[in-house]
Amino acid sequence: MRALAARLLLLTAFAWGAAGAAGFDVPYLTGRVVDNAEILSPAAAERIATLLKSHESETTDQIAVLTVRSMQGASIEEYAVGVFEAWKLGRRDRDNGVLVVIVPPERKMRIEVGYGLEGRLTDLHANRIIRNVMAPRFKAGDFDTGTEEGVRAIVAQLKGEAAEGAANEESRGEAAVSALSGLETPDLSIAERILFGAFIFGIIGLFTIIGVLTPGMGWFLYLFLIPFWATFPIVVVGVEGALILLGCYLVGFPLAKFVISRSAWYEKAKRDLKTKGRANVGGFVLGGSSSSSSSSSGSSWSSSSSGGSFSGGGGSSGGGGSSGSW
Predict the structure, then answer these.
(1) Dihedrals φ, ψ of 242, to 5°?
(2) Sheet-wide strand order for 33-35
(3) Which of 17, 27, 86, 126 could cross-link with 111 by S-S, CB 3.0 to 4.6 Å?
(4) Where are the alpha helices (DSSP H) in 102-189?
(5) Would you say residue 280 has pLDDT above 80?
(6) Do the Cβ atoms of 286 and 7 come closer than 8 Å?
(7) Are 218 and 212 in contact (CB under 8 A)?
(8) Is the pTM of this model over 0.70?
(9) How many helical (H) and strand (E) elements, i.e. helices and strands, does the chain have?
């Protein structure tokens, strides 16, 4: 995706990224290839620029490549959006720009895609180009080949000429789980992952515990929390990690409830809910249906609660594309 989880994180960047240099200095646009990190040979830079010029002449799509030594404290997503908006890639009426950002010292890269090209160069396509074409070459220290082949793959995808073979086999496999594949893990630091994890798991973890401890209505919470366990953890642990956690939840919840249901206090809470309309579970007063006019004190929960230049002068990007590292 852009993926739902990643795009939520990018909306803030988009809001201030249009200003270009709200938190960093945007490099000057000198051509289709701006090699400020000096990782490309003159010959490779010329070949890439020629390819991009030819593609633009045929389609009006504008693609630029930028290499830098530092993002000045910004994330790769924030930096790419800021540069894209400042450079105004793509035509205003088509939003058909693409920006490839490579940051060698931080071993990060991103393909930023304008609104108008997101249908042809999806987040999944961009992610596959980064992972299968560019990253392996960059790991070997071959920036010339990695960058040139990555750009050629982008052009081929935009023209509908993506190569058949292993890449397409992977694409078909990923398409079977496209709803999850689009939700990529955002490029977060360890500290950010810890903070997001504390927030996400603190909330769904609390309601999971309440569901396990609550007689009767706990099964409603079990079903209610399934989509939350299936999606929210992706932001912190990625798709594979989220699948593992979902499996643990689907199996662990019933097992834990079975064990706890055999305890004396659980039976007492179950009787209290039936006879008094409320029960004290771990300090929480859980309210059920009751004909009593008196109100219970403490916390309550019920199922009824809801909770330079060649710029076209105006293309926009809302965070579409993909980030990666090597």
Answers:
(1) -65, -40
(2) 33-35, 62-67, 97-103, 108-113, 320-325
(3) 126
(4) 123-128, 135-139, 143-158, 166-175, 178-181
(5) no
(6) no
(7) yes
(8) no
(9) 12, 7
